[in-house]
Amino acid sequence: MTTPLHYRAAFHWQSRAVLGRHLTVYRRNWHTAALPPLLEPIILLLAFGVGLGGFIPEFVWRGRPISYLAYLAPGMLAYTAFMTAFFQALFAAYIRMHYQKTWEGQLVTQLRLEHVVWGEVLWAATLGTVYALIVTLVLAGFSLTGWLQLHWASAFLVLPLLFLAALAFATLGLLFTALVPSIDHMNIPFFLVIMPLGFTSSTYFPLEGDSPWTQAWLVLNPLHHLAEGIRLLLLAGEPNHHLVAACGLFLLMILILIPVDERLLRRRVLGEG
Q1: Global confidence as pTM
Q2: How many Cβ atoms from other residues are within 10 Å of residue 91's Cβ?
Q3: In the predicted model, is pLDDT for residue 10 greater than 80?
Q4: Cβ–Cβ under 8 Å, residues 22 and 123
Q5: Local confidence band at 121 (pLDDT 50, 70, 90 cut-offs)
Q6: Beta bridge partners of 61
Q7: DSSP secondary structure code for residue 63 in this structure
Q8: Which of 6, 235, 228, 38 is nearest to 112 (CA)?
């Protein structure tokens, strides 16, 4: 298979069929599945943004005095898209592949493995974006109370960026779906990916330092660029270089990881290669 076909499969009807199948299953339990992404941001914003933030009278970000709640809100958007997409492409996709045998059933139809791969990636990205949209609605509610002031005119740029980010993080999650020996090893990607990216990305607190290693990590960390880019948009209304860096890193991740995911999953699922 030539390399362009790896990406062309994203637009095939078979990939959309896999996406549609996952959406149909999700809609059967939407009322319970949608409750955590609605309650979690409310609890975190109240506990950390309002509660903990009350003990931080002067929080300075890029030389500007802001509330910790205002700092936290954009980071939550970035982290929600990251965590949801990564988890869906890792744990949920592994369950469908290994235990439910969903992939096995799909592959005896007109679907090929690249369609299953893209269907999983598109579903994880869609769910990550929807959950981030729910967080956005929660932030809008906090804005109506007067606790949070954001530049909502810039918000239209955020959701497409979050979808691209979720696509990229889904390809990363699917990589570990192909690599982990069993479900007992699911803690490995959490320690290797989620904790390093999440806690060193300026999502919940600013990461500063003059160390060349710190600066190099921030330059290469896509979640850092996503969080800071959204933060500059929503707090200052400024398009910025972090948005460009984030888009570049996400596109690079997708271009590299989709063929790698498919190759490794072809070996694991079909015994080829």
Answers
A1: 0.91
A2: 18
A3: yes
A4: yes
A5: very high
A6: 64
A7: T
A8: 6
What does the alpha-carbon distance between residue 140 and residue 146 come to, in Å, rounded to a whole number? 10
Type of residue found at 209: G
Short-list 22, 2, 34, CA closest to 134:
34
Q: In this structure, which amino acid lies at residue 63? A: G
Distances (CA, A) of 148 to 3, 74, 202: 46, 11, 19
Average of pLDDT values for 189-213? 81
- pLDDT at res. 62: 78
Contacts 24+ apart (CB under 8 A), 94-99: 94/177, 94/180, 94/183, 94/186, 95/183, 96/120, 97/177, 97/269, 98/183, 99/183
Gap between the Cα atoms of 151 and 252, Å rounded: 29
What is the residue whose two structure tokens read 């955020």?
158
Return the C-alpha torsion angle 230, 125, 169, 100, nearest 10: 150
Upper half-sphere CA count for residue 78 (Cβ side, 13 Å): 30
d(CA 111, CA 208): 48
Of 61-65, 92-96, 195-199, give the lowest mean pLDDT range: 61-65
Who contacts 88 (Cβ-Cβ below 8 Å, separation ≥6)? Answer: 120, 123, 124, 127, 128, 170, 173
Q: Taking the CB of residue 32, how many other CB atoms lie within 10 A of it? A: 8
Where residue 53 falls among pLDDT bands split at 50, 70, 90? low
In angstroms, the CA 169 to CA 156 distance is: 21
Give the Cα separation of 217 and 221 in Å (integer): 6
pLDDT reported for residue 112 = 92
Residue pLDDT, tens place only, 236-267: 888 889 999 999 999 999 999 999 999 999 99
Kindly provide the residue ranges of all beta strands, DSSP E only, lying in the chain, ordered along the sequence. Answer: 59-61, 64-66
Q: Angle, to 10 degrees, between the axis of helix 222-236 and the axis of helix 68-87?
A: 140
